[in-house]
Amino acid sequence: MRRLIVITLVLAGLWAGYWYVGARATEGAFAAWIKDRQADGWVAEVSDLSTRGFPNRFDTVFTGLELADPDTGLAWAAPEFQILALSYKPYHVIAAWPGEQILSTPQQRITISALDLKGSLVVDPTPALTLDRSSIVIEGLTMTSSAGWTSSLVHGQLATRRDTEGENRHDIHFEASDLTPASSFIRNLDTDDVLPPVFEGVSLDANVTFSAPWDRSAIEDARPQVTRIDLSSFVAKWGELELAMAGAVDVDARGNPSGNVTVKARNWRQMIQLAEASGALAPELVSTVTGALQFVAGLSGNSETLDVPLRLSGGTVFLGPVPVGRAPVLVIR
Fold it and tell me: What is the mean pLDDT of residues 97-104?
């Protein structure tokens, strides 16, 4: 019995030593990262940084955190931010955002509040900390912009997993329910107030290839850019409008996609009106596009439902040989 007590005390002492050294190393690594960002010309300030959680956790709490990247003009401020990890599995971390935080761009300042905003992140246990998989859960999110718009989300989830069959590829899943788009977007898009203010649901499944790994350099140096999207499914329901898309596009260095996407739409005539109102479809093309889509819809036997292939090339979306709008520019700042 005496020997067992001695062994237990020795092991407890060794574990306490491991925890103390690990906690100080964790805290020191984050503090060094802040100083490195300052040396790179960032605004990087924290009023307090501490690691606690003995004996089984390394819970690092940042108080009064402010970060700003001079190259992109992006800035983020949070009264408190937590990075939580099990002491025996430090490469799997939980990030907990505060109830309110501020994201700033060169164009606007966005105040973000949420009832719950947490993320799970698993990285390779190497100095590069390459992302393996992640998950973010959002509950009761509200965004208010200095540009005059508001947006909200009742529930959302984003999950990613690295695809080992290709370099820098990730499977991405996103779903949201009761999404209220930016109020300015609604005002510009729906001048007749015929649409409900809330998206009932949006979901996306895709395999995305990036120009570089998502690792610590993605924050410190430059964000990896999208080079290819294999879209398995995108589905959105907004009142009487239903939209589904699938396809594959390659993305050039300027963010211009090229490839083919199949679009299925219900109540597509209303979508034409919204596209014109938003400026995505030039007024002079409305008659031509409507006639072409009416012909295509008639082939399916249901004039209110579309099932049509679109081609993206040179920054433009084509229906056959007819340009029908601008293609989105896919650039990650």
Answer: 94
